[in-house]
Inverse folding.
């Protein structure tokens, strides 16, 4: 989902997954000049409508939330300490 103003990309969000059971919300961003105008909420409401239309009951939706309070207002909850996020960087072999 993307939001543009005069052709300029000012907000976007992306969902990746298997289309049924597992989804990850990634790359939710709003240009700093346009923050505080409800655009992030619009992006997330669009994503939620999409997920409601395709996700099976009990599907798992995850994200790395740099601003947890924003997402909590939209009904998302932190999973710690029950679960912990993890990461690993991969590099090209030389």
């Amino acid at each position: 989902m993307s939001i543009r103003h005069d052709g300029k990309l000012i907000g976007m969000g992306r969902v990746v997954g298997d289309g049924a059971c597992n989804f990850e919300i990634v790359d939710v961003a709003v240009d700093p000049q346009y923050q505080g105008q409800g655009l992030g909420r619009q992006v997330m409401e669009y994503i939620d409508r999409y997920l409601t239309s395709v996700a099976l009951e009990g599907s798992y939706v995850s994200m790395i939330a740099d601003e947890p309070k924003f997402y909590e207002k939209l009904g998302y909850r932190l999973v710690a300490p029950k679960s912990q996020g993890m990461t690993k960087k991969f590099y090209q072999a030389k």
Q: What stands out?
A: The mean pLDDT is 93. The first helix runs from residue 39 to 54. The beta strands are 2-5, 8-17, 22-30, 60-63.
